[in-house]
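FAQ: What does the model actually see?

It sees only this:
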Amino acid sequence: MYLFTQCRVTRRLWDMVANWISCMAIQPMLWEHEESLDHWWSARATTQCCSRKGMRSLIMLVSWTVWRERNSRIFERKESTINMMFDRIRDESALWIATGAKHLSILLTRC
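And it is asked to produce this:
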């Protein structure tokens, strides 16, 4: 749970994503301490600023990016900057939209 909710790199990444999609409700400074990853996920996915399905896709995308970065740092000894990770999220979101993530498209067209 630490990696996705409390890690300083992840929190900074989420702050960048919140600014990108203009949804301040998902900024980490507003997060309450959650007892489980499931509760954290539910709290982010039900934010009032945007589509639930779009937000769930975005949560998966950000979490997947964080997980891949973790693996790269551990197994390949390669480290990306936060800006590189954020760029990866934006690039990957375009690919997800191109392959049919319509709710993510709706969420991001507001940006």
